[in-house]
């Protein structure tokens, strides 16, 4: 994973020097001010704004209010009444209908972007232009080109960008990661994850949502990478519809409510993912890792630890006496009663991600705020979001074409004229003759510009190395 990050940073590094000019804006960030406050021992609270007061925005506001040293001072929502309600509920002094009011507020140190996905990239770029650190719910953007542009905008401005992959902060999954790192179960052989929702979303949510791999399985694909500690090589994915037949008329993987993936990692490690939009027994979120010396697995999370032990109820069951003669067998079928014992959890698992992962959201928020105050790297980077999107797009392609897809095939679709001017090759007429895009997922770093604080070689040096000049 380290090599992957270094490689991905190198193309972005390369691009940064090439396209930096005296006319470019010099953005003043608030990192130094926050760090000075931390060093003085009197830490000022991190003042934040939240864009979007829908379901996920409310979750983050609740988490922000639980995180020490963080103060929300402004919220926005296009329906201003929602912003007003959220401000009253969480004691936020200012509210607005315009996201730019949050982004340009001089008191704001960092912005939480919890708006619909199609607005993320532009809002990230606006935050970078105004020197604001950014926490953005996944995805960064709806396609790779915009994703690269947004990451580069933050890196060029010298502001932090953290992506919301909250499962990485769940104590259950973190314990599995720790076991792998400490070799408690030996070397990893197989990784398994599953995600099954209590009930399917409405048709309107699925339509235009990008499909089951992009809006659901992406979390599990990222978790396999998080647990593997390596970057993936290729993927095989399949999908089907079993629950909501109304979505079968939708295009591509939007027509799937059930899907499975196999992801190949280095050293022969395979990861298996299954997702389904309905689970009759509650929200099912589990992970398992088989190693050479043992196995570690997580269970679901319940609202309490209470269990019921009882003899159960009398129910009718079919008792068939065994006889050789089939006629005699049919004649001797009788209906009798048997008592079914029951031992198990008194209640179902948490019903959805809002309750299941609330503490993970709080931990995630605290981690981002700590990186702001202490001026340390964020735990979930833009590149983590970029790779997660690459994995979900490759899964979509695999299911559509019925074959293994290398992640390099997805990476090769991106071309950048400058760090913040990227496009998909299929939509570009300016791809230079003789230049071949990098084909290894580790070279995603070459699309991303590093932070301006770091000294790197020039773009031309990097470009010459890439094309072998």
The main pleated sheet reads as: 7 strands, mixed
Given the C-alpha coordinates, what overall shape results?
Answer: globular
**Residues in helix, %:** 25-40%
Number of strands: 19
Q: What ranges have pLDDT less than 50 throughout 5 or more consecutive residues? A: 2-29, 35-40, 314-327, 430-438, 454-469
Strand order of the largest sheet: 12-11-7-10-9-8-17
Query: How many helical elements?
Result: 16
Describe this structure in words.
It is a single chain. The protein has 469 residues and is an alpha/beta fold. The chain contains 16 helices and 19 strands. The strands form five sheets. It has a seven-stranded mixed beta sheet with strand order 12-11-7-10-9-8-17. The model is unreliable at 2-29, 35-40, 314-327, 430-438 and 454-469 (pLDDT under 50).
């Amino acid at each position: 994973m380290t090599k992957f990050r270094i490689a991905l940073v190198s193309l972005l590094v390369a691009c940064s020097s090439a396209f930096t000019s005296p006319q470019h804006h010099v953005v003043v960030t608030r990192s130094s001010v926050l760090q000075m406050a931390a060093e003085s021992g009197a830490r000022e609270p991190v003042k934040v704004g939240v864009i979007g007061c829908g379901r996920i925005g409310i979750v983050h506001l609740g988490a922000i209010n639980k995180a020490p040293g963080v103060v929300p001072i402004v919220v926005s929502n296009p329906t201003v009444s929602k912003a007003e309600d959220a401000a009253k509920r969480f004691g936020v002094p200012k509210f607005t209908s315009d996201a730019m009011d949050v982004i340009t507020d001089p008191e704001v140190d960092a912005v939480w972007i919890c708006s619909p996905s199609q607005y993320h990239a532009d809002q990230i770029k606006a935050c970078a232009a105004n020197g604001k650190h950014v926490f953005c719910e996944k995805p960064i953007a709806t396609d790779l080109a915009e994703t690269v542009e947004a990451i580069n905008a933050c890196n060029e401005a010298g502001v932090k960008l953290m992506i919301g992959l909250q499962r990485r902060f769940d104590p259950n999954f973190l314990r599995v990661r720790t076991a792998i790192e400490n070799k408690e179960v030996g070397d990893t052989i197989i990784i398994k994850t599953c995600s099954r929702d209590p009930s399917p979303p409405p048709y309107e949510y699925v339509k235009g949502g990008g499909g089951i791999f992009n809006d659901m399985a992406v979390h599990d694909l990222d978790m396999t990478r998080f647990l593997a500690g390596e970057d993936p090589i290729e993927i095989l994915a399949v999908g089907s519809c079993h629950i909501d037949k109304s979505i079968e008329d939708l295009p591509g993987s939007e027509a799937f409510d059930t899907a499975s993936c196999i992801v190949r990692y280095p050293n022969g490690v395979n990861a298996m993912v299954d997702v389904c939009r309905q689970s009759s027994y509650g929200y099912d979120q589990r992970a398992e890792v088989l190693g050479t010396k043992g196995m570690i697995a997580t269970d679901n999370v319940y609202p309490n630890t209470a269990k019921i032990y009882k003899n159960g109820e009398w129910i009718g069951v079919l008792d068939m006496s065994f006889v050789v003669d089939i006629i005699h067998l049919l004649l001797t079928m009788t209906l009798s009663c048997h008592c079914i014992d029951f031992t198990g959890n008194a209640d179902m698992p948490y019903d959805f991600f809002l309750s299941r992962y609330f503490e993970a959201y709080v931990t995630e928020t605290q981690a981002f705020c700590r990186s702001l105050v202490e001026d340390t790297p964020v735990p979930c980077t833009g590149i983590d979001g970029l790779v997660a999107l690459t994995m979900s797009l490759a899964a979509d392609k695999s299911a559509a074409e019925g074959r293994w897809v290398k992640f390099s095939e997805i990476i090769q679709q991106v071309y950048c004229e400058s760090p913040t001017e990227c496009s998909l090759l299929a939509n570009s007429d300016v791809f230079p003759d003789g230049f071949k895009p990098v084909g290894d997922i580790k070279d995603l770093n070459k699309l991303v510009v590093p932070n301006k604080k770091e000294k790197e070689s020039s773009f031309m040096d990097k470009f010459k190395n890439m094309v072998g000049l």
